Amino acid sequence: MIFWLYLIFIVLTLFFYFIRRNYKSSKELDFIPTVSFFKYISILLSNGGQNEIQKLIHESDPNKIGLVKVSSVVHTIPKYELLPKTPASIFFGKGMIVSNGDYWRRQRNIASTAFNRALRPDMVAECTNEFIMLLNKWTDIPIDVLSLTKRLTIQILGKLAFSYDMKALDSLEEQPYFLEIYNKILQHIFNRPLLSMAFPFLNSLPLKRNIEFSSLIKEFDNFIYKMIEQRRLEMSKAKNENENTDLLAGILDSANYEKIITQIRSLEIIYIILYYLAKYPDVQKKAREEVINVLGSASNLPTSENLKNLKYLTAIIMESLRLYPPASVLVNRKPTKPLNLSSNITIPKGAKISVNFWQIHRNPDIWNDANKFIPERFINPTKETKTSWIPFSIGPRNCIGQNFSMMGQKVVIALTLLNFEILLPPNAQHLDEIPLTKSLLLHPKKIDLIFSKLK
Predict the structure, then answer these.
(1) Confidence of residue 381 (pLDDT cuts 50, 70, 90)
(2) 161-180 pLDDT, tens digit each
């Protein structure tokens, strides 16, 4: 017993020594308030989520200078070239998020072209109709909405990217093979043990967790390559390959998981909009009236033109993404020269900087009633509002899936509103905040909704 106590003591001592030595900030940043590492750890150990983490970050800036220091071990990623092996770096490889220069520009151009070709409301509508047929079998009972939107998303991914039926919307009883592997991989990436964060070399050892992760990646690879080869064969037989409009044109020449995961995440966030429509029946009613006015009926497929006329639905989506962006923070960058933020605030060269979307989107100096759901603020947005709404980031490195995501969300929500009334379960709490996991990619712990056929 004494031996194990000594061993635990030594491990903890080494753990905190490593953190202190490797994540101590420069003296030039002493003026910036620091988020307590120990308070952060206590949130994680108590099964807290991003709501609690973001509250801690907000409270750590009492003078509202707009900057806080957060321990790198939990919130930021060091420069990629120096990054030891982690589940994320192993899975994603050197993708667009962490690359720079000519390689990034080449990847960006390929991906942008691919996503522009994928802006097909008819294909998304086809998958949404499968989604509606599935929901027709499960009306008037609570359903896990995140699981539903994941199924819909990978079905759209399969059809658009690979002309492949993922069988994700055939039944709710069985977990689609692709989704099962994808969920397990993300669990490994975002639920890393604290010890492996402090000692990254542990990720390279032949431990049970690492062996299981490698096996999952191999399964994922085999599944993707099988779909790619099948699609290659179909394309080679086509009379005019230049008319191909699916995402595969961009993925085949430069296959990396970032494009795939970007598309999955870009539509998976539909669960947020569905939740708010259920929570605010008056908003749902107004949105449905607009959809009926623009589309007419469920038999009329949305087009790029009439989607532009869904002004109120667009505002609902934008407000939902303001409160719950796809990710809470942007992967960090390092300035190549001192960065002057104001007359008295300068970030030194080489400091790791990460933009916190959550905090910007809920800044009361920018947004009136910042924590309230008010879609009308986006009907006639101010210039400041437009530049401060950044759920897909902003500038040349913004999310390549932004236009695809907005198009897809409009199609899915519009057709769902034409077929169902969306309700909270009778015993559901009307929460001010959606309970979230600790993942930087915002995921709800659980949300059940009821879909009732319109009469």
Answers:
(1) confident
(2) 777 888 899 988 888 888 88
3-state secondary structure 96-132: CCCCCHHHHHHHHHHHHHHHHHCCCHHHHHHHHHHHH
Report the distance separating Cα 404 and Cα 160, nearest Å: 11
172 shares a domain with 55: no
- pLDDT for 70 equals 75
CB 179 within 8 A of CB 151: yes
Pair 406, 314: CB distance under 8 Å = yes
Ranked by mean pLDDT, the top range of 70-84, 102-116, 233-247, 419-433 is 419-433
Tell me the CA distances in angstroms from 169 to 135, 300, 452, one per residue in order: 9, 22, 18
> What amino acid occupies position 175?
Q
127 appears as a binding residue in the annotation: no
- The model's pTM is 0.82
Domain residue limits at 65:
1-75
Domain end marker among 21, 41, 75: 75
Give tens-digit pLDDT for 351-366: 778 889 999 999 998 9
* Residue 29 CB partners (closer than 8 Å, separation 6+): 69, 347, 348, 351
Tokens of 58: 């907000």
206 and 176 together in one domain: yes
Tokens of 255: 């296959």
User: Does one domain contain both 330 and 309?
Assistant: yes
